[in-house]
Amino acid sequence: MTLPQPFNFKGGNSAVILLHTFAGSPMDVQILGRNVQRAGYTVVGPAFSGHATADPANIFLQGNPTQWWADTQLAVNQLKAAGHDQIAIFGESLGGLFAIKAMEELPNIVAGGTISTPLFPIDTSRVADRFLQDARAWYEKIGTPSETLTSKMAFLTEQIHLTLRAIGDYTVPIHDKLNVIKQPTFIAQPDADELIYRTVGPRLAETLQDQTMVSYHHYPDAPHVMTYSPQGRVLADDLVAFLKTVF
Hints:
The structure is a single chain. Helices cover 47% and strands 15% of the residues. It is α/β, with parallel strands linked by helices and 247 residues long. Strands 1-3-2-4-5-6-7 form a seven-stranded mixed sheet, sandwiched between helices. The longest helix has 31 residues, at 146-176.
């Protein structure tokens, strides 16, 4: 079994961090990362703790919002230690939450943004349902015995709701500090998002537009994880064009 790995694509001195989705992996943003690297940037894609393992339960056993923020800080500090003093950070879904927090709190972050990220309260029931469906399919694929599968799914069902509530609580102070963001901000909204409200991107853009430069883009027919979709290449082109106005 080959598991997804973090990536570090070497390029120029200007660096970009790409943060992946909840229950996803650096594979979510790897193609996007390659396209950004070809434009001359160093691009890294870390893995959030508990993700990209052989067992979805590790997301809860090894990770939580506080740990995922520590993972984000580590990625920034590693780039700084390698001599990259200009860093942009973007995240897809959950990753966008920590990208925005980095823009609010960390030095050296010159720009950033979100892809399919709720910075406002949402109904998370579809997120939970998708996670449980995908987890069950994965366990069945690797041949998990039925009695073990039952206990694992009971654990995941309890934990996913607790964790989504924890993420919602963690989002509140990040939302409340949006007014400190002065860096240029890129916001991508898939118009066919099947998991969260399609208004979250426009709402974030409206919130920030009077205090900084906002580059807002929406993508017809794009799903929640749009970096893996046919619209992913258009997203990459738009992100590179944005970066060229920053670095």
